[in-house]
Write a structure and sequence with these properties.
Length: 400
């Protein structure tokens, strides 16, 4: 829209200059000839007021511009450009009803003028008159097809989803898919609940561009959301077949493998996901949490978890480290759990849950001096937490 605004300013200037040129009518004047009437004075007055209006608008003094244009109307009420300029200035003054009044007069005079239609569209949007905005843009797209995306958005607002999708299809076919249209399309499918068409569209996109990983991932997600796990799994395998080095696909694959009791493949996928630099820390934390839960039920794979945890470095998220701590806690290795919690706390020093878990663990490990010091530090951050006073008191009592 920012680019369109800039284009609109340029078009407006060109329009005003184009329409103003006939007002100038500079011809050779015979100063020895006596004027027959005062028509020349009237014309000069009109030009003076009109160009004064343009000057005032140029310095953003819109009220004075309106005053000058109203004087123009008193002299000659037939000039379309005056009504157009009045509409523009009232628009700038946020007097939208007045802007609409004058722009409609201009549009009635020149119904196919794209600049007038463009300004009308802007006012209708500000008035939230969607139906009139649609009618105006449907005229505008004859001159500027780039407004078709705007029109699709307006169709969505009045629930004309089929018309909106038709326009998006047309634009994608001509210009290729872009992010804004893809987002609008996805929103339409979500609002309308039309998952069948969304899945069909994604399949079409995959057929058109089999190397686009994103469409596969979206299709996997849509199948999963609709409960069609078999189709989701098959799509994931298809992606892995097309792109054997894909890492993101393993965020879905390991879950499918676990559900299908294909344990070796599940462990392999989890390892790839956790160890890959392509996957963000939050996603890794979720995978590791699932891995921890998996090993809790399948202790024979603990060595694989240990192998992965050994690869966790200082760049891992606090969530990942906290999940590791929880695993070690369940496994009965309190010292390793404490180490993981403390590493996580270094990254998020104001995390009360981590502070609490660390202090309670140190109590269990009977490191009472450390508990007293830690509780005092924590109370400086959380003076209203009664649990901290209790923990500190227990540690003090055990020091006596």
């Amino acid at each position: 829209m920012k680019v369109k605004r800039q284009i609109r300013k340029i078009k407006t200037l060109l329009f005003c200059v184009t329409l103003a040129l006939p007002l100038c009518g500079f011809t050779q004047v015979d100063f020895n000839k006596t004027p027959d009437d005062d028509l020349g004075d009237v014309k000069d007055a009109f030009q003076e007021y009109f160009f004064e209006a343009l000057k005032q608008k140029g310095i953003e003094n819109y009220e004075r511009a309106v005053d000058a244009l109203q004087e123009c109307l008193k002299i000659d009420s037939t000039k379309t450009v005056v009504y157009y300029e009045l509409g523009k200035n009232y628009n700038q003054l946020k007097a939208y009803d007045s802007a609409l009044k004058y722009l409609k007069i201009a549009a009635n005079s020149q119904p196919d003028n794209e600049w007038i239609l463009d300004e009308l569209y802007d006012v209708y949007i500000k008035l939230d008159d969607v139906d009139s905005a649609i009618e105006t843009v449907e005229q505008l797209i004859r001159y500027h097809p780039d407004y078709k995306e705007d029109l699709a958005g307006l169709y969505v607002r009045v629930e004309r989803y089929t018309d909106a999708l038709s326009l998006l299809d047309e634009l994608d076919a001509k210009y290729g898919v872009n992010e804004s249209r893809a987002t609008m399309r996805n929103n339409i499918y979500t609002i309308s609940g039309n998952d069948t068409e969304r899945v069909s569209y994604l399949k079409e996109q995959i057929a058109l561009n089999p190397s686009n990983e994103e469409n596969y991932l979206k299709l996997i997600y849509r199948h999963s959301q609709s409960g069609d796990i078999e189709s989701a799994f098959n799509t994931a395998k298809e992606l892995l077949n097309k792109k054997p080095n894909s890492v993101l696909v393993h965020l879905a694959l390991y879950k499918f493998y676990i559900e299908r009791d294909e344990i070796e493949d599940a462990v392999s996928s989890m390892k790839i996901a956790i160890q890959s630099p392509e996957i963000n820390a939050d996603a890794k934390a979720k995978v590791l949490k699932d891995f921890v839960n998996f090993v809790s039920n399948n202790p024979e794979y603990e060595k694989d978890l240990i192998e992965i945890t050994d690869s966790v470095d200082n760049n891992e998220s606090p969530e990942t480290l906290a999940n590791l701590g929880q695993y070690y806690l369940k496994a009965g290795d309190k010292r390793k759990a404490l180490q993981s919690f403390e590493e996580a706390l270094q990254k998020t020093p104001n995390d009360f849950k981590l502070i609490k878990d660390i202090l309670l663990l140190k109590l269990e490990l009977q490191d009472f001096n450390a508990v007293v010091i830690g509780a005092e530090d924590a109370l400086a951050l959380f003076p209203a937490q009664p649990l901290l006073y209790l923990i500190k008191g227990v540690a003090h009592n055990n020091l006596k």
